[in-house]
Amino acid sequence: MNVIEIKDLNFSYNKDHILKDLNLNIKDGEFISICGQNGCGKSTLLKLILGQLKKDSGEIRIFGKKIEEFKSFYKIGYVPQVNSNKKIAFPITNLEYVCLNMYSRFGFLKLPRKHHKDKAYDLLCQMNLKDKINKPFNELSGGQQQRVMIASALVNDPELLILDEPTVGIDKESKKEFLELLNHINKKHNITIIIVTHELEIIEKYLDNVVKLEEGRIC
After folding, report:
1. Which of 50, 78, 79, 190 could lock onto 163 through a cystine, CB 3.0 to 4.6 A?
2. pLDDT at residue 178 greater than cutoff 90
3. Residue 137 · residue 148 · CB < 8 Å
4. 214 has which bridge partners?
5. Radius of gyration over alpha carbons of the chain, in Å?
6. Pairing state between β 16-27 and 192-196
7. C-alpha 135: how far from its chain's center?
8. What are phi and psi of 144, to 5 degrees?
């Protein structure tokens, strides 16, 4: 089964043609990387898959449904790039950060219940962050913040995990631990993973496939 099917996809910003007749299939359980130079269309492709942008033409299907009809975005966990220069503007602990991604399930009072907190706690422990659970998110290192964001992305039990440049600004040892964690999530939990990265050399041994974009096309 294909988790994502893309056929003859085109997208432009104003008159700049970013993606050109792009075709791509991603199978259930695959761990793939999308790579390429800056400006080749990687982030644009992610935004189209996530429904944040609308295509010019072509077709995108997610879990068999056309993107225009797809409503189950809870099936997709998204981990944005960590930007060390952009702190969260209000104080929040790591447990609260993960719980917030279950906001739609909080009920009438819109407050997390014990089972929400328990699930967030368990996921943070799985990320080897037991001693950081009640620490402020802003006080963590880049690698630790990535783990918290993965816990947040996994809290709704997604079938697809999308990560944008997750290893930027993380030290070498943390990168290795981080990629081993992703490999475990992929192999043990059968979660399809798409990772956008410039650092293909450190991740390629974990991958099933590499998709290289060049001037808006797969090459």
Report:
1. 79
2. no
3. yes
4. 217
5. 18
6. unpaired
7. 23
8. -70, -40
